[in-house]
TrEMBL record:
The keyword DNA-binding applies. Residues 41-101 form the HTH tetR-type domain. PANTHER family: HTH-TYPE TRANSCRIPTIONAL DUAL REGULATOR CECR, HTH-TYPE TRANSCRIPTIONAL REGULATOR RUTR. Residues 64-83 bind DNA. This is TetR family transcriptional regulator. Keywords: DNA-binding. Gene3D superfamilies: Tetracycline Repressor, domain 2. GO terms for molecular function: DNA-binding transcription factor activity; transcription cis-regulatory region binding. It comes from the Bacteria.
Length: 243
């Protein structure tokens, strides 16, 4: 992957997200006159962006902490203190990207909209995330290197797929939502089947055919069908819905 391609993937549009644990500053260069605490925050955000760039350019195993620290202009010790090491920094890249794509979505724990509307909103944000060039590139890295580096796959799962699944489980566990769903299907299975119906074979096609992403109107139609299929099997019949 060329440097110009990496720069395209890491444009501000793709990576203008808060660093994990932050809800204030976007990834941007340090500005003069900024308080020291804010400068440190901005430096950490820059570190996450640099790490993402290097991971995608060289792969996970070929990137050293020294390489990341030098390009991000921080001490290696800073990476250990803030992220616990390379796997933790990779987790921060995944978490920050995920936070960016879900930032403007209604909170699934509190939204009062109809269930289908809530899930339709989630579906679009979810698909925007998993089909983004950055996410696809990082997914390829995990698949390619997970056998030799098990902690990489674990880090990816914990802050990516697991968080999304638990997000849906919390939604389906809400009393007002649970009353609408079949009580003979465990919450975790509901979450898994929801994601499967929404995802279809999109990720498989993107991994092996990078330019196969459908036009927005086609994707929307596919998501609508997937959501209807999920709700058709997950919702209780009208005569069994509890008050």
């Amino acid at each position: 992957m060329s440097n110009s391609t990496i720069q395209d993937l890491l444009s501000k549009q793709d990576l203008n997200f808060p660093c994990p644990g932050s809800h204030v500053l976007p990834c941007q260069p340090k500005a003069q006159g900024r308080p020291k605490a804010a400068e440190a925050e901005a430096r950490l955000q820059e570190l996450v962006v640099v790490a993402a760039q290097l991971f995608m350019e060289k792969g996970y195993n070929k990137v050293s902490l020294e390489m990341i620290a030098k390009q991000a202009r921080v001490a290696v010790r800073t990476i250990y203190v803030k992220f616990g090491g390379k796997a933790g920094l990779f987790s921060a890249v995944i978490a920050a990207g995920r936070n960016h794509f879900f930032a403007d979505m209604d909170d699934l724990d509190t939204s009062t909209r109809p269930l289908r509307d809530v899930l339709a909103d989630f579906a679009m944000h979810f698909m925007d995330l998993v089909t983004s060039p950055v996410a696809v590139a990082l997914h390829r890295i995990v698949i390619a290197e997970s056998q030799s580096t098990p902690e990489l796959a674990q880090a990816y799962y914990e802050v990516g797929p697991r968080q999304t699944r638990e997000q849906l489980i919390r939604l389906f566990a809400r009393p007002d939502v649970r009353a609408q769903l079949r009580d003979d299907v465990p919450l975790e299975m509901l979450a898994v089947q929801c994601l499967n119906c929404l995802m279809g074979d999109h990720m498989r096609r993107l991994l092996f055919q990078p330019d196969s992403s459908p036009p927005p109107e086609v994707l929307q139609r596919q998501l609508d069908i997937g959501l209807d299929m999920f709700l058709g099997g997950a919702l209780r019949r009208p005569d069994t819905v509890t008050a």
